[in-house]
Write a structure and sequence with these properties.
This protein has 11 helices and 13 strands. It has helices spanning about 20-25, 30-40, 50-65, 90-100, 115-130, 150-155, 205-210, 220-240, 255-265, 280, 290-300, and strands at about 5-10, 15-20, 40-45, 75-80, 105-110, 135-140, 160-170, 175-185, 190, 215, 250, 305-315, 320-325. It is globular. About 50% of the residues are buried. It binds oxa(dethia)-CoA (UT7). Oxa(dethia)-CoA binds next to α2, α6 and α8.
Length: about 325
């Protein structure tokens, strides 16, 4: 059976660091509260000259270089993002041009923070079906651009980064073994950026009402997220006859340390087999799982043959999991 194997991973986070101490001066919050409730100590914020495609491009260039793949070999680019450069052209299209992928189709995929798993799943399907040989999957966000820096419930969490993975068709045992995608629109209102689309196009009124910023009922998102995270992780493991003990590494979406700990407790995985970098990057949406994967590889925490579980959830709601043999 043809599988999609990840043959190169890259990541990029902007240089500018926004600390909890700086946020203390912007909204009524404290370093202690943020660390206790989220585990976040600092996050990266793009500078004014950077947009999502710039971050995506840097992550993609690193992934291609590490994979030893030329831009012309890419058949398809899938970018998971909720903060694309503009309504259109798509961010994937911009990256396609900047990279010089002259033989590639390109698409953006909107699944909020699950954009990592969704992009990986879509990319791998094209390879498994035999349609394409090499797919570039990217998760990239400039969430700071939709954050209301007077809203302490969101500004402490959301941040900017990009990650990328080059998938290549392979006949061996290694590769993406399975992916699962879920969604439930009943929860849409809990995490939403209301304006900027066809429902509420930009007007003075939408700007005055701050409708272009992300709004979140954090506590309600938290409760549903913990349940969904655990459900999808358990389901993909059991369907593949794998127990949590078999896993070398669990790479969860980095939304909040408490959500990660709750999922880990339910899965019965020890924390030393979980990648956590939310303390340094905050919640980078569709980028987070890719960025964490890149870090895991750089730290030598994944070896050939290892079983790796990834899971994410996000606005919509959307959620999903991916199971890989490295
Ligand atoms: O990728 C998916 C995206 N979203 C998420 O993953 C978010 C999931 N949710 C969360 O991470 C958490 O719900 C938050 C970190 C957003 C909030 O933590 P919480 O423990 O759920 O707090 P809460 O919303 O229940 O609020 C408790 C209190 C409230 O005050 P009162 O009403 O009890 O007086 C809030 O107003 O904490 C207050 N609060 C804050 N205090 C200091 C909310 N944000 C802050 C803040 N600093 N930044």
């Amino acid at each position: 059976m043809t599988r999609a194997r990840i043959i190169g991973v890259g990541a990029y986070a902007p240089k500018r660091i926004l600390t909890n101490e700086e946020l203390e001066r912007m909204v009524e919050t404290s370093d202690e509260w943020i660390v206790q409730r989220t585990g976040i100590r600092e996050r990266r914020i793009a500078d004014e000259s950077e947009a999502t495609s710039d971050l995506a491009l840097k992550a993609a260039q690193q992934a291609l270089e590490r994979a030893g793949v030329e831009p012309g070999e890419i058949d398809l680019i899938v970018v998971g993002t909720t903060t694309g450069d503009m309504a259109f052209p798509t961010t994937a299209n911009i990256v396609q041009h900047q990279l010089g992928c002259r033989n590639a189709g390109s698409m953006d995929l909107y699944a909020a923070c699950s954009g990592s798993i969704y992009s990986l799943s879509v990319g791998s399907q094209y390879i498994e079906s035999g349609k394409y040989r090499t797919v570039l999957c990217i998760g990239a966000e400039c969430l700071s651009r939709i954050v209301d820096y007077t809203d302490r419930g969101t500004c402490i969490l959301l941040a900017d980064a990009a990650g990328a993975a080059v998938l290549r068709a392979s006949d061996g045992e290694a590769g993406i073994l399975d992916t699962d995608l879920y969604s439930d629109g009943r929860y849409g209102e809990l995490l939403i950026q209301p304006a900027g689309g066809s429902r509420y196009p930009a007007t003075h009124e939408t700007v005055d009402k701050r409708m272009h910023f992300c709004r979140m009922k954090g506590n309600e998102v938290f409760k549903v997220a913990v349940r969904m995270f655990g459900d999808c992780a358990e389901r993909i493991l059991s369907r593949n006859g794998i127990t949590a003990d078999d896993l070398a590494l669990f790479i969860p979406h980095q939304a909040n340390l408490r959500i990660i700990e709750a999922a880990v407790k339910r899965l019965k995985v020890s924390m030393d087999r979980v990648i956590v970098n939310v303390d340094r990057y905050g919640n980078t949406g569709a980028a987070s799982v890719y960025v964490a994967l890149e870090e895991a590889l750089a730290l030598g925490r994944i070896k050939p043959g290892d079983l790796v579980l990834m899971a994410a959830f996000g606005g919509g709601f959307t959620w999903g999991a991916a199971l890989l043999r490295w």
